[in-house]
């Protein structure tokens, strides 16, 4: 990763803290001009690969990385959304290196043929790889898309909702009787039996119905899914009003399928009007607000704090050997690698994650009390929320230290690894027995909500940061032992 070392510290931090989520990335030069737009299932892995295997890259990609001085990320809900967004961003910025790479065979277009009466009453949908071909076929073109496989998967799902023909049969509707279709083969094929084609070749579907399905697919690629949903909702309510609940349920399932396939493609209409930085900021603020509401914090806290700070803690060891603690930090929903801290556990050499967590927290909290002497900004400023990697046991042991150190007012939660359940403490102290006896409340969160994703992201980052440090110490110890032998 030597090429990365030649970049600014700010750029290096952005690369190392890239989201491990699907989305798009934009490489920019020193003037802020976008050089290249790419998509990835895991942005962190993709960005890292550019620098880890720099010498193996083709020359033009090496030149691109050499010119890159900044990178921006936009996280989306799925690979489907990333594909559509990438296409829009390439068109918007007319990026130099995307244009250079468009000649590659990997780039594809979706061509939806035009209906030509008496010649092509049943237009087909094609994936075109050769850019020269697209100029010789009349129809609406969508693309370019850098990869063909995701496109095929999208069309496969769409075809279940909006069946269409893929065969080479010549099919022309008889003008005098639209219910009859002249075809080179009138026997329905396998796709009819699979529900992927309604067999217009066998006069089982007319061109009006067929082209209505084709138009819906066009709307999908234009980002107009809401129009389709409204139309289907109208049909659903119509069936429900006439007590035809069976068909109403069919329409409902179609609506759900459209929403699933499109994966909330909301960025298409926004990308031209709102900067990517603004979209990211808005999404992070929304996730943070969602989290605070779920945890039942005072709502004013979000607005009173200019920089809402979350700290996450994790312990890493193998059977108690080389135990280390990791602290990761988020401010206003954004990871801040420059504020991360590592702790060598001093007092334990046998497995005891609870005690190790307590030692780390006690050492960290001491810095807040010694704020005048401590110049470390990361440790001198208290967090607004603490997250511990663990369930009820880890949460309980961590809270004991907060009480002992006089910081019981700092909200603390735990996230259990097994089922990704989030817990908070509701009753911390029982005066009658004069003992600490916590009660736990499970926070109800949708597994795909922005709140749980925010917690998971800082938790996963703490785990990664801790493991990296643990491996480093373990390797160092092994080398030392070998030298002694």
Automatic annotation (TrEMBL):
Domain UVR residue range list: 226-261
Keyword vocabulary terms for this entry: Cytoplasm, DNA damage, DNA excision, DNA repair, Excision nuclease
Pfam families associated with the record: GIY-YIG, UVR, UvrC_RNaseH_dom
Entry GO CC: excinuclease repair complex
Alphabetical list of Gene3D superfamilies matching this protein: GIY-YIG endonuclease, UVR domain, UvrC, RNAse H endonuclease domain
The keyword DNA repair appears for this protein: yes
GO function terms (MF aspect): excinuclease ABC activity
GO BP of this protein: nucleotide-excision repair
Residues covered by the UvrC family homology region profile domain: 282-402
Domain GIY-YIG: 20-99
InterPro entries: GIY-YIG_endonuc (IPR000305), GIY-YIG_endonuc_sf (IPR035901), GIY-YIG_UvrC_Cho (IPR047296), UVR_dom (IPR001943), UVR_dom_sf (IPR036876), UvrABC_protein_C (IPR050066), UvrC_RNase_H_dom (IPR001162), UvrC_RNase_H_dom_sf (IPR038476)
Protein known as: Excinuclease ABC subunit UvrC
Natural source organism: Candidatus Dojkabacteria bacterium
Taxonomic placement: Bacteria, Candidatus Dojkabacteria
């Amino acid at each position: 990763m030597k090429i990365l070392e030649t970049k600014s510290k700010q750029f290096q931090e952005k690369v190392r803290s890239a989201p491990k989520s699907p989305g798009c990335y934009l490489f920019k030069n020193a003037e802020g001009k976008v050089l290249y737009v790419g998509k990835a299932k895991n942005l962190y892995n993709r960005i890292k690969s550019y620098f880890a295997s720099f010498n193996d890259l083709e020359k033009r990609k090496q030149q691109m990385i050499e010119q890159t001085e900044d990178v921006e990320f936009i996280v989306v809900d799925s690979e489907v959304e990333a594909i559509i967004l990438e296409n829009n961003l390439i068109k918007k910025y007319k990026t130099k290196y995307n244009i250079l790479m468009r000649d590659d065979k990997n780039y594809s277009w979706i061509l939806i043929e035009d209906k030509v009466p008496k010649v092509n009453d049943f237009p087909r949908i094609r994936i075109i790889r050769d850019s020269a071909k697209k100029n010789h076929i009349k129809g609406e073109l969508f693309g370019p898309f850098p990869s063909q496989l995701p496109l095929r998967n999208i069309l496969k799902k769409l075809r279940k909702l909006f069946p269409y023909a893929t065969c080479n049969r010549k099919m022309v509707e008889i003008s005098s009787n639209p219910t009859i279709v002249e075809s080179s083969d009138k026997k329905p094929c396998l796709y009819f039996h699979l529900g992927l084609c309604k067999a217009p070749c066998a006069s089982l579907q007319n061109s009006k119905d067929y082209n209505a399905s084709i138009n819906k697919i066009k709307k999908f690629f234009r980002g107009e899914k809401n129009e389709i949903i409204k139309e289907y909702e109208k049909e659903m309510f119509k069936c429900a009003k006439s007590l035809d609940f069976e068909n109403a349920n069919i329409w409902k399932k179609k609506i759900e399928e459209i929403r699933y396939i499109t994966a909330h493609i909301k960025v298409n209409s926004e990308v031209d009007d709102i900067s990517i930085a603004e979209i990211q900021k808005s999404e992070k603020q929304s996730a943070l607000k969602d989290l605070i509401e779920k945890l039942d914090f005072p709502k004013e806290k979000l607005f009173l704090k200019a920089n809402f700070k979350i700290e996450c803690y994790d312990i890493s060891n193998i059977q108690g050997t080389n135990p280390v603690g990791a602290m990761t930090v988020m401010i206003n929903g954004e990871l801040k690698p420059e504020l991360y801290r590592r702790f060598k556990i001093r007092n334990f050499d046998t497995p005891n994650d609870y005690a190790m967590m307590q030692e780390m927290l006690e050492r960290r909290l001491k810095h807040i009390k010694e704020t005048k002497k401590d110049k470390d900004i990361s440790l001198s400023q208290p967090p607004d929320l603490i997250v511990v990697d663990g369930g009820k046991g880890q949460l309980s042991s961590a809270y004991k230290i907060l009480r002992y150190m006089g910081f019981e007012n700092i909200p603390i939660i735990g996230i259990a690894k097994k089922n990704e359940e989030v817990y908070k403490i509701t009753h911390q102290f029982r005066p009658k027995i004069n003992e600490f006896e916590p009660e736990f409340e499970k926070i109800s969160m949708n597994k795909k909500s922005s709140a749980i994703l925010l917690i998971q992201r800082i938790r996963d980052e703490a785990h990664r940061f801790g493991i990296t440090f643990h491996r480093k110490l373990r390797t160092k110890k092994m080398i030392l032992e070998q030298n002694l032998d």
